Amino acid sequence: MTPKTPIHVSISWVRTRYPRPSQLWSFLEPIDKDFIIDNFLHIILFEGVPDEHLRHPGPLRNIVTTHKVPSKIRSYLQSIDKSHLIGHCVNLVFASAAKMNHCVYCHKTYMINWEESCRIRHWGELKVVHNHELELSCCGQRLSTKDYPSLANKPKHYNYSKSDYESFIRQKPFCYSGIHHSTPIITLAEADLIDDSHRWRIKPCYMPGIGGLCCEKMECEKATLGIGMSKKHTGNEDE
Prior knowledge:
Layout lengths: L10 H7 L3 H8 L4 H15 L3 H4 L4 H8 L3 H10 L2 H13 L5 E3 L6 E3 L6 E4 L4 E4 L3 E4 L5 E3 L17 H10 L2 E5 L9 H4 L23 H4 L1 H5 L6 H4 L5
Antiparallel strand pairs: 1-2, 3-7, 4-5, 5-6
Helix pairs in contact: 2-7, 3-6, 3-7
């Protein structure tokens, strides 16, 4: 349960209580986002930004130079995905010891060597294919209409309703559920992500993420201000 008011912690207190980046990440995941932001701001405003973050270009320096005043920093932190916020917190406390990456498919920040949490929800259209099967255009997953008597014998171009769609995704809620990827899948050998019908769950050279958008179109560099991002995403050397 998240306390109603900030604890107002210090970096040294956090390092003592959570000596490894993965421990701090696990602690923060269920915590209320506003509570995390309050303590993040308390540290950088009252304890100051550690010199190791200011000497070289990096996510934390990007935050304080881009947004400058507390109200704008708060607005930025409230606007980003919670995984990016947690990444910024872990980076603040552990700096270069916190090894993170950015997933090019679900567009979340994740800890390196702790990658089993990629979830991509369906975003495609539902259509009828041969043998009375329903298929989602985003990933090619199928269910037989025999499982849904109300949907059987519909014409090929039947316009499925929202409830039809929801019935399908209750059975198979994700395009993909597995490890994160910091670079796109290019070949079948790299993927190991095929369903029982031997169809791609994550298609080669393809970004299923949110509406099938890649990091550039999702403006991930702007959203993260560099947290987890590397030369694979930005064209620059790793920080």
